[in-house]
Amino acid sequence: MIAPKQVLILEALARYKYLSRSQMARLGIEKYNSNYSKYCNPLLEANLIGVLNAVPYGLGHIYYLRLKGAKIIAEHLKTDLEELHYVNSTPTLSPQTLFHRTYAIDSQIECYDSCQRDQIDVLFYYREIEAVGSLKKDGMLKRKTRVPIKGKRYIEPDGIFMLDTPKGKKLYCLEFEHKDYTKKSYEKVERHVEALNMKSPSEIYGHDKAHRTLFIYKNPATMEAVMKKMRENIQGIGKWFLFKTYDEVATEVRFENPTFLMGEPKLFFDGWRDCTGETGKIF
Fold first, then answer.
1. Nearest CA-CA partner of 253 in 86, 109, 89, 82
2. Rounded distance, CA 35 to CA 32, Å?
3. What local confidence, expressed as pLDDT, does residue 135 receive?
4. What is this structure's pTM?
């Protein structure tokens, strides 16, 4: 018999694939840290979920859904197993991957939370942590968000999603920039400009308008440097490229033993700035 809180944990992992305890607290599952051991340990013992020890990096325990757990929650949700996000084998993630993935999932959580509060449907949300293809048939896997541009080049956003907004369906590419590499980040902007001009994402996802690209930066100084370089070198992109810092996106979750405490929920849709610094909504 699975307890209601355990069902919530499996449901959340089925959507986000990897979640720390603080992220589960942000989702409203449980505010007391010790209770996660009570709920998660039986799921671990039953091989429904797995766990990564990211305590040395300050991220705590990061849980993920296994196939056995995915089958159970698929039956509970009356959905296809292929729609859920689970892990087939034990992942080995570098510190860089752990941080980047955690922050990108924080951004996705905030997007979904704002959608729920504003009654906006998420038509789909694909992440670069998902792969498509077959090693047996194709000899390789590729990231689900890969979008070809010219030649053999492509973009691979951290997320590609579509919202059904009051202003119609809107398509977005999301990039989370964890490292302080202005040059690499700007090169990524240039590839996205190319994708925008070609309307590559819109063609792939059957969208009749151009997409917008959202850049989220852990370091505000890196964001400002990229925006400055865009002002100097790229013309006419208007509101198609929008920027925020991680602290502007992610709701504060702090741990005061034994409780996770939440700050005021952030408004994901509001307060984005274009490269000139003018602010507005994403739709």
1. 109
2. 6
3. 42
4. 0.94
Give the residue carrying structure tokens 């995915």: 70
- Tens of pLDDT, residue by residue over 168-208, are 999 999 999 999 999 999 999 999 999 999 999 999 999 99
Angle ∠(136,100,233) on CA atoms, nearest 5: 100
pLDDT tens per residue, range 51-86: 999 999 999 999 999 999 999 999 999 999 999 999
Q: Where are the beta strands (DSSP E) in the chain?
A: 18-20, 49-54, 60-65, 121-127, 131-134, 140-143, 147-148, 154-155, 159-165, 168-177, 212-217, 241-245, 253-256, 259-262, 272-273, 279-280
pLDDT band at 238 (very low <50, low <70, confident <90, very high): confident
Return the closest-CA partner of residue 87 out of 139, 46, 51: 51
Residue 218 has pLDDT above 60, yes or no: yes
Q: Which of 103, 108, 142 is CA-nearest to residue 125?
A: 108
Between 93 and 23, the more confident residue is 23
Phi-psi region of 133 (alpha: psi -120 to 50; beta: other; left: phi over 0): left
Interacting residues of 191 by C-beta distance below 8 A, sequence separation 6+: 149, 153, 154, 155
Find out whether 266 and 272 touch, Cβ atoms under 8 Å: no
Cα-Cα-Cα-Cα torsion 78, 79, 81, 82, nearest 10 degrees, comes to 180
Closest CA to 10 of 67, 93, 61: 67
Q: Left (φ > 0), alpha (ψ -120 to 50) or beta: where does 206 sit?
A: left
Structure-token match 């890969």, residue found: 146
Residue type at 38 in one-letter notation: K
User: Based on the number of CB atoms within 10 Å of its own CB, is 17 exposed (0-12), middle (13-18) or buried (19 or more)?
Assistant: buried
